[in-house]
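Dear U.,

For the methods section draft, I wanted the exact inputs and outputs in one place so we can describe them consistently. I've listed the two proteins in the order they'll appear in the manuscript figures. Please don't edit the token lines directly; just add comments below if something needs changing.

First protein:
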Amino acid sequence: MNFVTSLKRLTLRNTVVVLAFMFTALYPLVGGKSYILHLFILFFIWGIVASSWNLLTGYAGISSLGNVGFLAIGGYVSGILAKNLGLSPWVTIPIGGTASMILVTLLLGLPALRLKGIYIALLTLIFADSLPSVLTQTRDVTGGAMGLHDIPPFFSGLKKIHAYYICFVVFLIVQYVIYRVIHSSTGLAFMALRDAEHFAASLGVNRFKECLKVFALSSFLTGIAGGFYVHSLGDISPATLAIEPFLLSITMMELGGIGTFFGPILGSAIIVFGSEFLRLAGTLRLSLLGALICVVVLLFPGGLMQLIEQSEDWMRRHIGRKRSSLTA
């Protein structure tokens, strides 16, 4: 099943995806406000993080809590190389993604082969929680608690609209890569290990290889997102690893629908734009956002994608009844 065929089968989703794509592609050209462009850039970046996280947790069934740390590694490596060595961001971003992939695969992927469930979650959480201390203690390189500032942009004279389209294109490429992976034999192996590990092993699925593969891919894509984060926004600090970004990034998956392709994208859009809109509520912002999330998760354990799927089923039944009555 290819991407176009799957969209044709999902009429409601097809319509929403096409309209969202057209709006996103054309918005800057019709006088989009700079602040809204900034929010879209954040959505593109966090959408990549959430989708990559979903690949690891939703599809492979590995309970990771450290993916924001993958973002920080890629961002810091790219930012340091570009600022201190004067390298082009187009060179440093892949290096940052590769550094994230190597560190995560060695420090988390290999130990995870001997762990399961909550123990992997604790390992990845400890990994992410230790990074702020490391960054603070290496201030000569990382800028310490203040972080890195004035990180070079993608090119001189970069405007917000340029960063917007660069991140938009990268967002689309990453989503396409993830889509192809989950609909490939590799994706089927991930889901087989998630749903029935012993049965998958009896069919010849190598847990060692697939576990390392999903850690490497998820951390590389998230590290790439970190590189685009720092070169689009110009700074990064240990605050990126604070509790709020951590919780919001998890919520992006859960709210949209973990283990679904479009779920993390939808969740990222709601969290990024909804969180900014709720700033009008001041200190109640996170409380209101948390209440909204609780209501959605209680009513729809599969996230908003469950609601969309139920709406699609209702529309199909409703249209089917109308057609039956017309032909009767």
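Second protein (the one for the lower panel):
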Amino acid sequence: MKNYFRFEENNTTYSKEIMAGVTTFLAMAYILFVNPQILGDTGMDMNAVFAATAIAAAIGTAIMALWGKYPIALAPGMGLNAFFAYTVVLGMGIDWEIALFGVFVSGIIMILITLFKIREVIINAIPAELKYAAASGIGLFIAFVGLQNAEIVVPDESTYVALGDMASPTTLLAIFGLVVTVIFLVLGARGGIFYGMVLTAVAGIITGLVEMPSAIVDSIPSLAPTFGAAFTGLTEVEWTSALIMQLIIVILTFLFVDFFDTAGTLYAVANQAGFVKNNKLPNAGRALLSDASATSVGAVLGTSTTTAFVESTSGVAAGGRTGFTSLVTAALFMLSLFFSPLLAVVTEAVTAAALIVVGVLMAAALKLIDWDKLEIALPCFLTVVVMPLTYSIANGIALGFMFYPITMILKGEGKNVHPIMYVLFFVFAGYIFFL
């Protein structure tokens, strides 16, 4: 095992790798409870999604460990799960089974573009500012969902949204969770989001706002309600031209967000670990293929896109340097399968803080956009604000990608726009105007 992961070459030990793997798991364990709640809003069985989340994370992380050999953990991604639930299923009205098929296809396409080395072309085609805007917009969208779950933001007939009753017990519990989570993160606790959820759940039980779970450990939940649903649902839906067009947009969005999320996370973790040499990542292709494979596996199990988690940097900071770190994290995800009864205590008020904080962290990319250039600022602004205002990640990406070629042409910079962006203009225009 030491030779396989090159412990001596990476100046590491079993104790360092194990501690790093545990650290990474604690930093991202919140996804085990947040993901079932988000996907559960679509009507999916929460216990089955919990199992799918844990198994997809375990398999994806193990593939990354054994093949990619990077200390990077994977799990169903925040933002992509929100897009799946609130935009695709609840917004577009697409059945969750068909949405899972879209996730599966996006994973297969990711595998192909990585194998045929097309990823560099795509990376260069899409302007960096639009990538930052998409990440930030998704962050605002997630934070908006969190504020709604906390009942800090509520519907209003006159103004569409308004401030909720800040003195209500549910809102106070969510605010307590937000404060506690921020304290943990400010103090540098690597599992801050997870610890914040734990303390919020405990506070909810003490105050009677959250029911005590019937047990802590139980048998592994059944995957039957979601396993293979991505394919069984294909024969139960009426395929129309509108549905096919919608599904194409859905697949493109899954692909776009996962592609750049993975590439960015991989670079960030590898750079922190000291793996980047001459601005190149060794075995980058293997790492990207590991991520793509995990996405398709997760879709079959019954969860939204599985992707690399930037929380992996916490494990690297703790000394993780090889895939053995990821192997430890994968084992802990498998072990977590026995703790499904804890889903009962993870209410919307308990997870609200996690959504808000993750949204804040994602919105940090706003600072990387050149707001002084209107031809760049306008499409980026539309991408960011349209997502939460229309409750649709796809709408934000569509309008941003449509307006970018337009503003660049008006600026006289049309020749500098990659041909792929013009193709995407017509694809997204068809989505906006005809669906």
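Candidate sentences for the figure legend, describing the second protein: The first strand starts at residue 74 and ends at 76. The beta strands are 74-76, 153-156, 160-163, 306-308.

Thanks,
Y.
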